[in-house]
Specification:
five-stranded parallel beta sheet; about 45% helix; five-stranded mixed beta barrel; nucleotide-binding; elongated; 6 domains; Archaeosine Trna-guanine Transglycosylase, Chain: A, domain 4; protease; Methane Monooxygenase Hydroxylase, Chain G, domain 1; alpha/beta; 24 strands
């Protein structure tokens, strides 16, 4: 045997023995033990562990400890309340204590590592020992049923007899006295004999216990036993004040009997009621089980509402609730027509995308009214936990079902209209991805078996009419977007806003503010000024707030001044709303060199963009100002390259651009600007400044440019054309590939505009340069 002496901090363990290769944690509270742990952590994290012979001894002497212990490596130390430390260690080597180096402020022991020499047993002997110990271990596992199958498989696959014995000793549940015997056994033969004797003894004890249980059980008559147990249970519940549990069980059984659900669902709930019946009412799990049963019994499994098939009435409801939104209304009418013909059919999953205030959320309620469906709304803005959708596992304390299940419970039917508001505002963190959890909910091929982690019973969502809303498609992951039918709701035109204000907003605000009919009149010119100069938005939310402000001032005038009628005109509207907040950048009065008018899309609608270019002596530098984004900067570079490539067609001196600097500026520098739609506008303004030829003041343009001068298509065309109309622009240049978009637009939008389609810069310059 080889010897190695170490001096290490020591802990006296009570009721625990650590073997080599064993990973175990224990708590230390004695001052010396805590100091020993701290000393070990400051050095090499090694510590010597000796077990007390009597766990009750508070301050042990060396004679109170076993002579053989374990040198262990401290893997983790966690501080607990009440001055407790939880230590996680891994046993390394057997060691025999030689003496104590110090006793204060902690125990430090001199210990000698005990290493067994190689024992040269013949192969038949090793094979016999391996087979014998395996057989004993398998018998113990079969009889006790306390060892996992994975552990059994892992140990049975070990071919080395010494490693097999050590692994069984480490993983077998046994008293610390028996573990100490194994620790003190250094040779392979000693450990084999001790472990074999322990396994044989445990198997015998298990046999005796089972025999006793069988004899006791056979001596009690079954009926008599049940009677005694029921009486005892009844008495115990009365003593604990738990008589209400039986009433709850009866109520649950009654609700289950009345529940409209499939046999599989009823069978599952029946089993859960039986589990609840066997729980003590004071136990925490009984409260969890009661909440679970209340939830699943309140869900509308097969309960459905009758959808309206009156198409004429449905159209009237949709028309009365909202002005415009023709595409959405027609899609709902198509769904109703199909449902009326087939009396079935999967509900569509619609996603309404558009700027704020365009009526996306309110249209969902109108659709529910038109179809006679229950309406529930789920706001997904800021939701970042996957459990918000799928629910928590009901084994957790405070577990709750997901929002989908809660909404179904709130609706009371399995086929409501469910609004998923702000679906583009979801996010993800370490708790999971919310949008990924929505994939199953919004997939018509999968949501008939939606599995909420809390309910644990598949729910059929195929009859639910899902309508989602979003402000920006870019915020929706592609797989989720692919599962929905996208319907864009662009901004309203000035005419549409006037209709909405007259038919909906003004009557609504007058009723809210208690103004009788006829007491307030807002003239058409005043309403037009309100829309154009006091609100700038794609929707009508700010417009409604402004009308509400007029109504409040009217109410005050009626009450304080005794006025019978208040008339708002374009001249006196400033008395109600103050000075004008917005002014559209109107078309210039005359043609100018180096100034071109572009069209831009913003989240609150369209706007015009004036691009100014100056040429000055210099070194050929290009200066871009106005807080431009990377895309617009690249468009300007592409415009310069195009102009250089065609300089001979416009008789531009080849050295002109090397001897002059060019400054491109877009006013309102504090407003960030970006997007691929200002390329042809910047190129036109730059060429105008170079050849000193003015750009038409009554013309605006939109489109991206390539190096070869091709004009690429753009988006947001409706909003851009509306902005051109507001700015009194007469002619608009639009990419040829956007012609289908123009053809689909209402005549009201393009009326009064001369729209010219262009395919390349040559056509643009031919129209733009005066």
């Amino acid at each position: 045997m080889t010897n190695q002496v170490n001096i290490l901090p020591m802990i006296a363990l009570r009721g625990t023995t650590v073997l080599p290769d064993m990973i175990v944690h224990f708590d230390v509270s004695r001052e010396k033990s805590i100091r020993a742990v701290e000393a070990a952590m400051l050095h090499d994290q090694k510590i010597f562990l000796l077990t007390q012979k009597d766990p009750e001894v508070e301050i042990p002497e060396l004679t109170d400890l076993y002579q053989v212990g374990t040198v262990a490596y401290i893997k983790q130390v966690v501080k607990l309340p009440q001055d407790l430390y939880r230590v996680l260690v891994e046993g390394l080597d057997r060691a025999e204590v030689l003496g104590l180096e110090q006793e204060e402020p902690y125990l430090k022991a001199e210990c000698e590592i005990v290493t067994a020499q190689e024992e040269d047993y013949p192969e038949p002997v090793k094979d016999a020992m391996l087979r014998s110990i395996r057989e004993l271990f398998q018998r113990y596992c079969r009889e006790s049923g306390k060892v996992s199958k994975d552990l059994v498989t892992q140990i049975m696959n070990i071919e080395d007899v010494q490693e097999t014995i050590d692994q069984i000793a480490v993983n077998l549940p046994m008293a610390y006295q028996n573990q100490q015997k194994l620790l003190e056994a250094v040779s392979l033969n000693d450990r084999y004999e001790i472990l074999g004797a322990l396994l044989g003894s445990e198997i015998e004890v298990i046999h005796i216990t089972k025999d006793l249980q069988r004899k006791v059980k056979s001596n009690i008559d079954k009926n008599q036993r049940e009677y005694i147990l029921r009486e005892q249970l009844k008495t115990i519940r009365e003593e604990l004040g738990e008589e209400n549990t039986a009433d709850d069980i009866d109520e649950f059984k009654k609700q289950l009997k009345e529940l409209d659900a499939s046999d599989e669902v009823k069978e599952k709930i029946s089993k859960e009621i039986s589990r609840f019946k066997g729980m003590a009412a004071s136990a925490a799990e009984a409260t969890v089980q009661r909440g679970y049963l209340e939830t699943v019994l309140a869900l509308p499994w097969n309960k459905k509402s009758e959808d309206s098939e009156d198409l004429e009435n449905a159209w009237k409801v949709l028309e009365a609730g909202h002005y415009g939104l023709k595409e959405v209304k027609e899609r709902i009418m198509e769904f109703l027509a199909v449902r009326k013909l087939t009396h079935k059919g999967k509900s569509p999953i619609l996603c309404l995308v558009g700027p704020p205030g365009t009526g996306k959320t309110s249209i969902a309620r109108s659709v529910a009214d038109a179809m006679n469906k229950k309406y529930v709304r789920i706001c997904l803005g800021g939701v970042r936990d996957e459990a918000e959708i799928r629910g928590h596992r009901k084994t957790y304390v405070g577990a709750m079902p997901g929002r989908i299940t809660v909404a179904l419970k709130e609706a009371g039917v399995s086929n409501p209209l469910m609004l998923l508001d702000e679906i583009d505002k979801t996010s993800s963190d370490y708790k999971g991805d919310t949008s990924a959890a929505l994939l199953e909910v919004l997939d018509p091929e999968q949501n008939s078996k939606f599995n909420d982690h809390y309910v644990e019973i598949p729910q059929d969502l195929s009859e639910v009419l899902f309508i989602a809303t979003a402000n920006d498609v870019q915020g929706i992951p592609r797989p989720l977007l692919d599962r929905m039918e996208l319907m864009e709701i662009p901004g309203y035109t000035e005419n549409e806003k006037e209709h909405i204000a007259r038919e909906h907003l003004i009557p609504k605000q007058m009723e809210i503010n208690g103004i009788p009919e006829g007491k307030l009149v807002i003239q058409p010119a005043a309403l037009g000024k309100l829309i154009n100069n006091y609100t700038r938005e794609a929707g009508v939310r700010s417009l409604e707030r402004s009308i509400g402000r007029i109504c409040r001032k009217t109410a005050r005038a009626i009450m304080e001044e005794g006025k019978d009628k208040v008339v708002v005109t374009s001249r006196n509207i400033s008395r109600f709303l103050g000075k004008e907040r917005y002014n559209y950048l109107m078309a210039n009065e005359k043609d100018e060199i180096g100034i071109a008018r572009g069209l831009a899309w913003t989240q609150v609608g369209g706007d015009t963009l004036q691009i100014e270019v100056n040429i000055m002596p210099g070194k050929g530098e290009l200066l871009l100002t106005g807080q431009l984004g990377d895309v617009m900067k690249e468009s300007a570079q592409a415009g310069i390259s195009y102009i250089r490539s065609v300089s001979d067609q416009y008789e531009i001196d080849p050295e002109f651009l090397q001897k002059h600097d060019m400054h491109v500026h877009i006013p309102e520098g504090a407003v960030p600007k970006d997007g691929p739609s200002a390329g042809i506008t910047m190129a036109t303004a730059m060429l105008s400044a170079i050849i000193e030829k003015p750009v038409r003041a009554d013309l605006a343009m939109t489109g991206e440019i390539t190096l070869r001068g091709r004009v690429l298509p753009i988006g947001g065309l409706k909003e851009k054309l509306l902005a051109a109309k507001y700015a009194r622009i007469k002619e608009v240049l639009v990419p040829e590939k956007n012609r289908p978009d123009i053809e689909e637009m209402d005549r009201e939008i393009i009326q009064g505009l001369d729209i010219r389609f262009v395919d390349n810069m040559k056509e643009v310059l031919g129209e733009a340069l005066a």
